[in-house]
Amino acid sequence: MTAESGASTLIIGCGDTGVRLAARAVATGEDVLGVVRSAESAARVRSVGARALCLDLDAEVGTLPACRRLLYSVPPSRDGDTDERMRRVLAAMPAVPAHVVYISTSGVYGDCGDDWVDESRAAAPTTSRARRRVNAEQQIAAWASHAVILRVPGIYGPGRLPIDRVLAGEPVLADTAGGWTNRVHIDDLAGMAWRVATEQPRHTIYNACDGTPTRREAYYDTLAELMATSAPPKIDWAEARERFSAVRLSFLAESRRLSNARLLADTGYRLVFPDYRDGLVASLRGDVRGPVY
Ligand SMILES: NC(=O)c1ccc[n+]([C@@H]2O[C@H](COP(=O)([O-])OP(=O)(O)OC[C@H]3O[C@@H](n4cnc5c(N)ncnc54)[C@H](OP(=O)(O)O)[C@@H]3O)[C@@H](O)[C@H]2O)c1
């Protein structure tokens, strides 16, 4: 079978999350094709027993293979207000698959202050990055009305912690009004995405996160504590504006407390890491639980 022939599961963007999804799918007997950009990523996809196809979604795409399940996990194009990568992929699909999942971000909600945020909250993107996400969500929902959109906050896990920043004593913004952040362990994200890809759930939009939003400082302080090193120094907004990039400041300007109640109720998914502290301990050990990559 060639890389281009049809698959039961097609993963567009088979990166850190995608390769974990590929491993889960392979373990259940699926024939998986993972689309990536680089040869290095293609080798990683093959290492979990899936086929790999290298494409650059920033250029025109020929016809993609048919599939039963489509999981889309590529960030939007780098500029503009529309996601041209998504447009090219949807135009290249020969048919709408039975199951479609899009991994989006909770950034579409914009700044919500101290509010708890569930899926009934309207998207209110404040950056062009978030507007492209909203556009991607709209494109895939228009193409497949049954597409499930997962709104995902910061993804962490083994190899995805700000260890170097903490060791270098880099400062973090002191908690101010708002300042709420949310996370999801990468293995839980893969678990939730695979669940909604295999059982069509009741709703088409879900927050896919752990159950423990925290003030920003707490995450860094907990990581430093677990690394047995000093907590990062805290700086105020004036100093942050001088030291941090515009992109980093745009993330810091937003605050949300995400609720995962809908996803847990509809799918019965049980989080391996409902609390980031346990997830940090496991990530620092490079420990991976469950049937994952
Ligand atoms: N980082 C976070 O905390 C966070 C939070 C919320 C949502 N998200 C979103 O969640 C999704 C999964 O995140 P992740 O960390 O697992 O992503 P990732 O590891 O960066 O994987 C993204 C995949 O997309 C592929 N890709 C990117 N640009 C491409 C292009 N122009 N043509 C073809 N393939 C392209 C990459 O291929 P190569 O590996 O070959 O480059 C990679 O396989 C992404 O959409 C991400 O933006 C991330």
Observed structural traits:
binds NADP nicotinamide-adenine-dinucleotide phosphate; two-stranded parallel sheet; alpha/beta; 36% helix; 293 residues; disordered C terminus; single chain; 11 helices
What would you note in describing this structure?
This protein is α/β, with parallel strands linked by helices and 293 residues long. The protein is built from eleven helices and 15 strands. The chain has helices spanning 16-27, 39-47, 84-92, 128-143, 163-167, 186-198, 216-226, 237-243, 246-252, 261-267, 276-284, and strands at residues 7-12, 32-36, 51-54, 67-72, 99-105, 116-117, 148-152, 154-156, 172-173, 180-181, 183-185, 205-207, 214-215, 234-235, 257-258. The strands form five sheets. The chain has a seven-stranded parallel beta sheet with strand order 3-2-1-4-5-7-12, with helices on both faces. Strand 1, helix 1 (16-27) and strand 2 form a beta-alpha-beta unit. Helix 7 (216-226) packs parallel to helix 11. The two termini are 23 Å apart. NADP nicotinamide-adenine-dinucleotide phosphate (NAP) binds next to helix 1, strand 5 and strand 8.
Helix residue percentage: 25-40%
Which regions are unreliable across 5 or more consecutive residues at pLDDT < 50?
Answer: 289-293
Strand order of the largest sheet: 3-2-1-4-5-7-12
Largest sheet: 7 strands, parallel
Q: What is the succession of H and E elements?
A: EHEHEEHEEHEEHEEEHEEHEHHEHH
Instruction: Please report the total strand number as a whole number.
Output: 15
**Global outline:** globular
Bound ligands:
NADP nicotinamide-adenine-dinucleotide phosphate
The first-to-last residue Cα distance is 23 Å
How much of the residues is beta strand, in percent?
15-25%
- Rounded radius of gyration (Å): 19 Å
Q: With helices defined by DSSP (H or I, 4 residues minimum), what is the helix count?
A: 11
Mean pLDDT figure: 94
Secondary-structure-based class equals alpha/beta
